[in-house]
Specification:
Elements: H1 2-15, H2 21-72, E1 113-115, E2 125-128, E3 144-145
Length: 147
Amino acid sequence: MLRHATAARRRRRADQAGFSLVELLVVLAIIGMIATMVTPQVLGYLGRAKGETARIQVKNIAQAVELYYLDLGTYPTTQQGLQALVQPTGPTWRGPYVRDARGLTDPWGHAYLYRSPGIGGTPYEVYSLGADGKAGGGGDQADVASN
């Protein structure tokens, strides 16, 4: 009799060991709802992070342009562009002023742009056209400039 009761308990535990299909579907539905609420938030953070990264990189490149000016007494021309920071341009050139030419690419994969003179009477301007690669825009599409 004791053996029979122990075997019956084991059988009941074995029957209850797994999850039913309905339970699994409910859990998957909950996970799906959470993912749909969280994903846009995470993508928003990613977009803002890229914009902030671009602002920091533009400031760093502008500092490199200033170091170039201190060594050569002139800012790179628009034709020379930012490549003047990584390739020798004269006898007093003491660069490279940027460690790696890959640092001249914005977080969206576009090359940073340079013009001299800059807009508004500034001697130069380093800028990115944002995620869309077009002038203007807002949010991720906004331009990032040194001036």
